[in-house]
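Replying to the earlier thread about multi-chain prediction with a worked example.

Input:
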Amino acid sequence: MAENNYTFPHTIFTEYDKAHNVGVFTETTNHIYTEQTEYQRIDIYETPAFGKLFSLDGVIMTRDSDEFVYHEMISHVPLFIHPNPKKVLIIGGGDGGTVREVLKHDSVEKVVLCELDKKVIEAALKYLPNISYELKNPKVELVYEDGSKFVSQFKDEFDVILIDSTDPTEGEGGLLFTEKFYQNCFEALNENGVFSAQTEEPFLKKEWMVRAYRRISNTFNIARLYMGYVPQYMPGTWTWTFASKNLDPIKDFDPEKVKEFNKELKYYDEEVHVASFSLPVFVKKLISEFSK
Amino acid sequence: MAENNYTFPHTIFTEYDKAHNVGVFTETTNHIYTEQTEYQRIDIYETPAFGKLFSLDGVIMTRDSDEFVYHEMISHVPLFIHPNPKKVLIIGGGDGGTVREVLKHDSVEKVVLCELDKKVIEAALKYLPNISYELKNPKVELVYEDGSKFVSQFKDEFDVILIDSTDPTEGEGGLLFTEKFYQNCFEALNENGVFSAQTEEPFLKKEWMVRAYRRISNTFNIARLYMGYVPQYMPGTWTWTFASKNLDPIKDFDPEKVKEFNKELKYYDEEVHVASFSLPVFVKKLISEFSK
Amino acid sequence: MAENNYTFPHTIFTEYDKAHNVGVFTETTNHIYTEQTEYQRIDIYETPAFGKLFSLDGVIMTRDSDEFVYHEMISHVPLFIHPNPKKVLIIGGGDGGTVREVLKHDSVEKVVLCELDKKVIEAALKYLPNISYELKNPKVELVYEDGSKFVSQFKDEFDVILIDSTDPTEGEGGLLFTEKFYQNCFEALNENGVFSAQTEEPFLKKEWMVRAYRRISNTFNIARLYMGYVPQYMPGTWTWTFASKNLDPIKDFDPEKVKEFNKELKYYDEEVHVASFSLPVFVKKLISEFSK
Amino acid sequence: MAENNYTFPHTIFTEYDKAHNVGVFTETTNHIYTEQTEYQRIDIYETPAFGKLFSLDGVIMTRDSDEFVYHEMISHVPLFIHPNPKKVLIIGGGDGGTVREVLKHDSVEKVVLCELDKKVIEAALKYLPNISYELKNPKVELVYEDGSKFVSQFKDEFDVILIDSTDPTEGEGGLLFTEKFYQNCFEALNENGVFSAQTEEPFLKKEWMVRAYRRISNTFNIARLYMGYVPQYMPGTWTWTFASKNLDPIKDFDPEKVKEFNKELKYYDEEVHVASFSLPVFVKKLISEFSK
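Result:
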């Protein structure tokens, strides 16, 4: 028995950003699931600090304790702008958190979730029930395809498109960060269509944030960056870009709709909606060239 | 020569939160300064990701790359509310970043900085010139004392008091987190006096955030929590509490004063001022019992 | 897909020696088993570098890749000295590695294994088959008791006693490091009885090595420290103390018996037997006061 | 003051073996020296556990607490075999530890140290005085050259050649691990010449150990691997290969010369000399094909 030596946690999850040589770590008490799929390494851990923690290739995707921030912000900001969202396309987001938030809007009749890696959905259903439970809702259609190809077949089809992707990679940033892809999303939206994409953050990944914002901005008539407090993604800040054919995220926002919303939210409300578009000065400068 | 083995950084600064068994780490390329003073262990490192990094007892206090967020937010929110701030007391803040921001307001005639550990100021002056340079401004008076005692001798003296302290500790949280201390700050402020204190954050330290807010709220007529994106403090979010005898941080805020401000700011502007008081739903709930 | 960020292993086992602030770490690809028992935290991991790795309270106990060194050295050194070992008592050693080595001696008719924590044996049987497989040999009797109490009931009973314990703890070092315990072992051995105990190592734990050696030396007529290359135990060196009532580990050693041995060994042979008693000068000095 | 959070050391040196995804770490209290030279990154740290620690490209080269093992074993094993060593060539070894040991032999009249990187010697002289102090001995000639080229100019020149190199690299393992280099060493030795080279270790680097041993064995008439307990080099074991034109490290060894030696040694003595050639069974097997 070596109990007196047991101070530092002996089983650790580490997310290491090799571009900056910085990282975060957290104790894990169980490694619930691990699999090298055709596309990536999936891991799910039990952690004392954050509950279940889900990573792809060693990068945290979601975790019980604070996933609500990201999932509420990618969903409710565009959904409360659309006057009557019925048909929603989510690209990525295989953990199911975005689906769960989208389905809180009673007007929604159909959600198509296009996730490349079927194993992500299977793992989420089995091990992340608090996040994934709406994936089995009959309104949801699951598609296992490359989202960039999938979206290109539609025209004037969706009221809402949400891009819940992993980080961009080398070159064009992966197929979910190209201008071509954003154009296809634009085409797939109908006249009042609204769009939101995760667009990285301005401290460690400002190049990609600016690049993604610029490409979306080049494509849509309206594009606005917004921010949130997202501890699960190092360094604790995240941005999304709202875009649309004609609806403005502030001018066309009706706070009364949020006040009257009949579902519980933990992060988003009518005040947060507006405040999230008030960007720090340095972020405004980073994107000023392309701002609309 | 073992260059082919040189992938993971071999010299690492780690901030470890033993209460949650989580941490952050970053490569250091030089350990510029280290000293065990009467009060604490001071370290200053050169880091590729964040520039100079300054820690006390292994906890990051400030770093070149993003210190501006914390220092602007603790300073400008209260200073833009006061109609004519002349005399400012800062407790803690020995790195000099808060002094630097305060002195951007031309009305300020005198800043008293009360820092317990003289070595912190000496180290900042020597190794953190971008942060500390205004510590030698003739308007600044440096006092090396326990701030909780120092403030208790004043009555109706200051226009602004800023509490730029380290984390609370066991029991009452250290002398800078007690209700008695906040009462002494109240007494030391004159009629239009405004106050701001760092009050931890709502993800990993919510108990202390609520406790500090409650104590300030019990003491001052007006008390309002506000938030910012602060990557240097794990988990990337931070809060401060604005308090005053009679001035309201929203109703008495004049955005024109900020627009006309003649100094450069990187984070704070009139939009950020207002948005920072729009709290996420779960934070509102945490403090709702004591909100004013 | 974040494959380009996947360089440093994201799931890590860390053994941290808080007395010296040093540690070792290794990638784990699966956390096969974890349980907090009445006595300790048991973990078993799959690791690319070392195969299965088994730890108690975060301290490595054994691992597939190099467990043979420790298990051969604690067993064969005393067993080859005894002229005809029939009855063997092992205290600790619940992973089964020492039992496996002892049973390679055909003369052995009975092995009593006294392990405090039944869960250790259950986990080893289930997850460490290469190490534990002889625990089910009919010659083996498993006893789940405190070894220090168990041994005290015997007199002139065993030919061989092996102390395969975890690290000592505060005070007397746990019940398996006291002089009283070693005296009870002495009593439990018959006239030609031989004994071997793990006795820590001379780089990071020299105080305990000397203390254990001194206590054994005070108790037995003959006591000799010996060493081996044991990578699994930081810092890569380990010692055991051979002791007996009258047999000398060098004078009474017959190398021919080892040469004729009919089982395969990976570390121990007649040369290693002798060489392991040739101690570095600084180790000789550390124990010189008590050497026999 | 955050003293209650100060448990895990916040400044850490990590040596990470990316080939195996394993590593060691240790607290550092000061980063005394760091420089990226033309050849490599040099760092020297103060550590509580090991005193001064010196690394090249993040790999520990030497440290105060236990450098004596490596330096005594590379030096005294060959020097006590040579009947009258006068002229010694050391390739690598810029920290000076090997020079220090060699000069303990009064017969030695001249030591040529050939170190590629002058900065290593300068740093050792300035920051590692306990290791480097004999580098300024008038018997020592310092040469800053590629050792593989330098040695090729000599014929029948040296009594002793010691290869105190860093780890091998890709391909041929760097110029100090090729058969051509070992042949040049053979040529540079005179008739009674003896040789010793560091040859890695059999747990994590067995391929290189076997390769180096085979190449030396192909070149010299006599070649014998020997081992030691070397905590500073993960995983705590190290080997060297003794080689010569005609002298045998056991048959030509006179233990009386060691007993009468007039200098203090901490690891090596006549017993250790002999025992270090008694290899574990698995190591004998690894090199059996080439053993002489």
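Confidence is low (pLDDT under 50) at residues 1-6 of chain C.

Feel free to reuse this layout for your own posts.
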